[in-house]
Amino acid sequence: MTVEHFHGLSAFVRSVEAGSFTGAARLLGTTPSAVSKSIARLERRLGVRLFQRSTRAFILTGEGQAYYERVASLVRGLEDADESLKAPNTAIGTLRVSMPVDLGRLLLEPITSQLMPDHPALALDVSLSDRYVDLIREGFDLALRAGTVMDSGLYARKLIDLPLVLVASPQYLARHGELQTVADLGAHRHVRYRLDGHVLPIMLADGTRVPIEGVFDADSGQAMQIAAVNGQGIAQILRTTVQDDLDSGKLSHVLPHVPLMPVPLQVVHGFGRNLPIRAKMFIDFIASHLAPLATSTRAKSRRLGR
Questions:
Q1: What per-residue confidence (pLDDT) applies to 257?
Q2: Is 91 helix (H, G, I), strand (E, B) or coil?
Q3: From the CB of residue 218, how many other CB atoms can be counted at a distance below 10 Å?
Q4: For 21-42, what is the mean pLDDT?
Q5: Beta-ladder partners of 244
Q6: Cα separation of 193 and 100, whole Å?
């Protein structure tokens, strides 16, 4: 295989992941024309069309999808081999990351203001979504996931237990009454979190599940926060999402003496034991910025006598 064949593979994989020749050119440090020509030569060598092109569309063909699934890991392996020869404290290359929206709001500021300036050769492609992406098929390197990881084909590292709180607006509580016990939850309106079509019940720290009726369901913590602030009901939500609202008085802590089951946050990947330097440094950076959340949660638990 010639050097040009490898250039074509890199251009092809980056075009798929970036969604355009222009995006691939930015990642590769070249021009869209050069990327297009490299892929055209690859298509001629393979004897198939990898993309359907028009003035408005850029669509991967069936053959292109099958080829991408076979060669993407090869291209990443070549990049990782290059990276292993570089300085061990330098992150180099592209990292495709999926993370929940609420954590993105928390983490993107330090990622873009600290991590990336310290590692100018690191490029990030970040998707903010609470959906559980298919890392292998969708071409992601890492995913932050709140909850239990079910895919046994992935490697997982637990980062932290994220605390949940029950909150409602003062206006809602004034209209519907303050709660004294867990049994009071059944008589109230609720803002519920829905993931992959399933509504999550209120989970107490002792494992008790409290079913609730919802008036507002959402697959986004931000949407739940807005609904709760506007008086739609009681929300079980990540403390990090609503801490500012609790501090400002826009939301009140409901049943603060009742501990809830925390949500484990894990980072998952398909690299196996050969984690690239860029991925390891990214994970370590995220872990260091999440660590204070665990410290503050333990301190608060001690104050509540848990």
A1: 94
A2: coil
A3: 18
A4: 84
A5: none
A6: 13
pLDDT value of residue 13: 86
Q: What is the dihedral of CA 169, 173, 178, 179, to 10 degrees?
A: -60
Label residue 10 left, alpha or beta by phi (over 0 means left) and psi (-120 to 50 means alpha).
alpha
pTM more than 0.90: no
Amino acid at 217: D
Q: What is the DSSP code (8-state) at residue 256?
A: T
Q: Find, among 145, 13, 151, 141, the residue nearest to 74 by Cα.
A: 13
Q: What dihedral angle (degrees, nearest 10) is formed by the CA atoms of 245, 248, 251, 253? A: 100
Q: What is the 3-state secondary structure (H, E, C) of 223-256?
A: HHHHHHHCCCCEEEEEHHHHHHHHHHCCCEECCC
State which H helix or E strand residue 1 sits in: none
Which residue type, as a one-letter code, is found at position 187? A
Strand partners, 97: 126, 142
Q: Which amino acid is at 235?
A: A
Query: What is the SS3 assignment for 143?
Result: strand
In angstroms, the CA 11 to CA 6 distance is: 9
Give me the residues paired with residue 195 across strands.
198
Distances from the Cα of 188 to the Cα of 150, 175, 213, angstroms = 33, 11, 8
Tokens 């798929």 locate to 16
Q: How crowded is the C-beta side of 148, counted as CA atoms within 13 Å?
A: 3
Amino acid letter, 65: Q
What is residue 188's predicted lDDT score, i.e. its pLDDT?
96
Angle between helices 277-303 and 101-110 (to 10 degrees): 110
**Separation in Å, CA 65 to CA 9, 49, 70, 141, 254:** 13, 11, 9, 18, 50
What is the rounded distance in angstroms from the CA atom of residue 67 to the CA atom of residue 204? 47
Rounded CA gap, 84 and 279, in Å? 12
Q: Which pair of structure tokens corresponds to residue 237? A: 């939500």
